[in-house]
Amino acid sequence: MTTPSHHPPDDNVVDFFSGQVYATTDQNRFIRLSPENDGLCMLYSNKANPERLYSMNILCWALRSNGEVVGMVPWLNKLSPCTELQDPLNGCWEGYYDPIADEIFEEPPAHKIIELETAAEYFESFSNGDTLQEITDTIGTHAMLASDDFRSLTLTEVLSWRLYRDGRISAMLIAQDKICCTPVLPGDDCLYPADSDSHFKYFFQHHIANQIKAEDPAALAAVALLIDS
């Protein structure tokens, strides 16, 4: 099965933000998402505890226009491909993990690759507008909003993730004053991108967010380290 073809501009056009040749940027563009509903995880290590591996639930799998499929996790302040996490301090990708089978693997599951390629080929014929797709957050991701130089912190749940035609992926938050009906669903008018909020700082896994809400000393210390950095 072939992935939809996309024709990049001339190689001498450079992306203003990344400095990369635009053709390369276009080939890395995300064109389809598939939620991870079976509990597969990312394994990562960090410099503080080099002898240990940590796990984090994968939010979704993403297909790039060059045919590559990668697992995606909310990491610091953006949704990142697992394989690109190479920060010794905050975390380095070590592989994917199936907790049910207790297996570590490096390549995306074949069924996810087939699903993404098939969906991308089918929906490309019908997609229009800026938004290609929107999926529900199923792993309890929270966004931290900070104001008054971090003296005021708010943790709010991410409802969904929106994939745009240019390959950007934004976490969607609920504007409480704009709710007109409940429950709030992906695509509702009361949603807005976290990256458009000047108060947005970081994403947290749900269990870390709950520890912060409960004012757990270790969790608060970790937040303090992020703020200092």
Characterize the structure shown.
The protein has 229 residues and is of the alpha+beta class. The protein folds into two domains: 1-127, no CATH class; 129-229, no CATH class. 17% of the residues lie in helices and 35% in strands. It contains four helices and 16 strands. The chain has helices spanning 22-27, 110-123, 206-213, 217-228; strands spanning 30-35, 41-45, 54-57, 60-64, 69-75, 78-81, 86-87, 91-98, 103-105, 131-136, 142-147, 152-157, 160-164, 169-174, 191-193, 200-204. The strands form four sheets. Strands 2, 3, 7, 8 and 9 form a five-stranded antiparallel β-sheet that branches. Strand 11 (142-147) and strand 12 (152-157) form a beta hairpin. Helix 3 (206-213) crosses helix 4 (217-228). The radius of gyration is 18 Å and the shape is globular. The termini are far apart. The model is unreliable at 1-11 and 20-24 (pLDDT under 50).
Strand content: 35-45%
Number of helices: 4
Helix and strand content put the structural class at alpha+beta
> Structurally, how many domains make up the residues?
2
What is the succession of H and E elements?
A: HEEEEEEEEEHEEEEEEEHH
Largest sheet: 5 strands, antiparallel
Termini, distance in Å? 46 Å
Which regions contain 5 or more consecutive residues with pLDDT less than 50? 1-11, 20-24
What is the mean pLDDT?
87
Which quaternary structure do these chains form? single chain
- How many strands? 16
Quick recap:
The chain is an alpha+beta fold. It contains four helices and 16 strands.
